[in-house]
Specification:
This protein is α/β, with parallel strands linked by helices and 306 residues long. It contains 14 helices and ten strands. Helix 8 links the parallel strand 6 and strand 7. Helix 3 packs across helix 14 and helix 5 crosses helix 6.
Length: 306
């Protein structure tokens, strides 16, 4: 990605300022100094899988790691990263821009602008750096029953306007109240739903399957959209920001562990959207462990030994 160039320059500058590009004195490497590297996750399968990718790459460099699955939502993970309780987790640029940095919506969303604003904002305010941009976007989307959508000619969010006041919306714990979620949809599209229920992502999808809700705040890389007969609606008024997946690391960790950053940079641009959907399906439909999925992907990409 073109906007990664500035990111690498910023990360390099961070390391140069700290003086950590050089080897540690007396031959001691940064692995020994760091101890266990803790990686946080959010509450869904993709977060587990990508966290284990981070973990496995660092283990190849000699680090001991711990993945804290289901640590919490966005702000729980980000605050833990700021405080040093974790050293890394995978986040999404639109979430950084809107929820963490509290920046106002752009008149026209642009992935590169959101990325650069997010990277500069985190580094300047909290010393948080982006170690890799994974190559895929997992965007929020509004999804409804596919058969009902086809019967009523609904393909875009704006098509919901005549029906929204009769629909119960299921959301993940954040989407209903965060500024880039339901409030933004209401501003741009001019309608609200009859009611909404917030729940963990897995429960949200099950609620739709069990006909407890009529629409959900779906994730575009989630294979349950197909499995449960969901129609993902086009955001025809460009209300929602881009959500490119990025690996975040704390500034202290970045400064003390240049070798770890080199390892994590191997993930840059490695995963496209269809690949991430396939990996998520292995978890949701294949019943595989997140670490095993991550291991096989990295091995197939020749990033770690088979």
């Amino acid at each position: 990605m073109k906007f990664r160039v500035m990111g690498f320059l910023m990360l390099a500058a961070l390391l140069v300022v700290s003086g950590c590009i050089e080897n540690a004195p007396n031959g001691q490497n940064s692995t020994q100094a760091q101890g266990t590297v803790v990686i946080g996750t959010k509450l869904f399968q993709e977060s587990y899988i990508t966290a284990h990718m981070v973990s496995l790459l660092l283990e190849e460099e000699g680090y001991e790691t711990e993945v804290k699955e289901n640590l919490g939502g966005t702000l729980v993970n980000y605050e833990a990263l700021k405080k040093g309780d974790i050293h890394s987790y995978v986040e999404y640029t639109g979430t950084i821009y809107s929820q963490i940095l509290k920046k106002p919506p752009l008149e026209e969303w642009d992935s590169a602008v959101v990325y650069n604003e997010s990277e500069h904002g985190m580094l300047n305010s909290d010393g948080i750096a982006i170690a890799a941009s994974l190559g895929f976007e997992n965007a929020y989307a509004i999804a409804i029953d596919r058969n009902w959508a086809e019967a009523n000619g609904i393909s875009k969010i704006s098509d919901l306007a005549p029906y929204a006041s009769d629909l119960v919306m299921g959301t993940d714990p954040e989407f209903a109240t965060r500024e880039d979620g339901l409030p933004q949809l209401a501003r741009v599209y001019g309608f609200t739903f009859k009611s909404y229920n917030s729940m963990a992502p897995g429960i949200m999808y099950e609620a739709f399957k069990n006909k407890e809700v009529d629409a959900i705040s779906a994730y575009t890389t989630d294979t349950r959209n197909d499995l449960y007969g969901l129609k993902v609606l086009e955001d025809d008024r460009n209300a929602l920001p881009p959500y490119d997946a990025v690996v975040l690391v704390s500034g202290t960790f970045a400064q003390e562990n240049p070798q770890a950053l080199k390892a994590l940079a191997k993930l840059d641009g490695r995963i496209d959207q269809e690949t991430m959907r396939r990996l998520n399906a292995e978890y949701d439909m294949g019943g595989r462990e997140a670490r095993d999925i991550a291991h096989d992907f990295l091995a197939n990409e020749s990033l770690i030994p088979v």
